[in-house]
Design a protein that fits this description.
204 residues, alpha/beta, two-stranded antiparallel sheet
Length: 204
């Protein structure tokens, strides 16, 4: 499916942000991404502080490496909902990157996001998820999530999503955006309408 930023006002997604050079394994950032990064650097003269949460230590380690390579300071890491909420009491941060599903102590899934929204209403939250159900994805956007990053996507999307969230934008990975668009085509009378995007299926 096609569609750039103009088709989805207020929404950033992977294919409008980055072009992947497979021979060198590097991402070339577009001018839009550069503008977002510049606005973040002006607002945060020091490195943005990010708190991350995932129940897999290897994933946490990989996320930390990627974010630090993109000049972000990982202020703390948690392995469950209870740990994330406690960490936010102890450590100030500019944004949170969290897995959607983290079995363990404390709230999980949408309940965790609701708790984050209640306790920290102005804190940008980016969700890392393997979920594909359009209703769930749309519900997360309606509830105030600033970013949805597909677990199967390249980790290089993570700093892009966080930069967008801190700049007041909403980032959705390309594959997740396609699932939302497909739902509109299949159920035109039950269209998901997130708060930041006028969802249109360009093949309809």
């Amino acid at each position: 499916m096609g569609g750039g930023p103009g088709r989805f006002p207020g929404l950033l997604h992977a294919d409008s942000e980055l072009s992947y050079t497979s021979s060198r394994h590097r991402f070339a950032e577009s001018s839009l991404a550069t503008q977002v990064r510049r606005s973040i650097s002006e607002e945060f003269p020091v490195q943005p502080r990010i708190i991350i949460a995932d129940d897999h230590p290897v994933v946490l380690h990989g996320i930390r490496i990627v974010l630090e390579r993109h000049q972000m300071d990982v202020a703390g890491a948690a392995a469950d909902g209870a740990g994330l909420l406690q960490l936010l009491v102890q450590q100030p941060c500019h944004a949170v990157l969290t897995d959607l599903s983290m079995p363990g102590p404390g709230p999980d899934g949408p309940e965790l996001l609701a708790e984050l929204r209640q306790r920290h209403p102005d804190l940008p939250v980016v969700v890392l998820t393997g979920a594909r159900h359009p209703g769930l994805l749309d519900g997360l956007l309606r509830d105030g999530v600033h970013g949805l990053v597909d677990k199967s996507a390249d980790f290089a999307e993570l700093p892009q999503a966080l930069h967008a969230a801190m700049a007041g934008q909403v980032f959705v990975s390309d594959q997740l955006r396609r699932h939302l668009q497909a739902a509109i085509c299949c159920f035109p009378t039950h269209r998901p309408l997130c708060r930041h995007a006028n969802w249109k299926c360009c093949s309809c």
